[in-house]
Amino acid sequence: MADLDPVIHAQARLRITAALATREPGESIAFPRLQELLDMTAGNLSTHLRKLEDAGYIDVEKSHKGRTPVTYLSLSKTGRRAFEDYMETLRSVLGTTS
Question: PANTHER family per the record (predicted)?
């Protein structure tokens, strides 16, 4: 289990990366939509997104829709690779293959 990426291994961050990994590379999702999908508070989601951003695992794009600020999130190339490695390691630990 020591080989599992500690940035991703936290339950909330694993849920976030898994949700973002279901999207095509470069495809983003708005913060409120991700919050709704994961049923997380804005503060909790923000805290975990910051850790993923600091690790270079997600890309954050801030823009405006009219006068309203909007944050879009996507899994970076590094993040996608880290998630794939995490899943491969997890399968190995569990003794399963895909």
Answer: BSL7504 PROTEIN
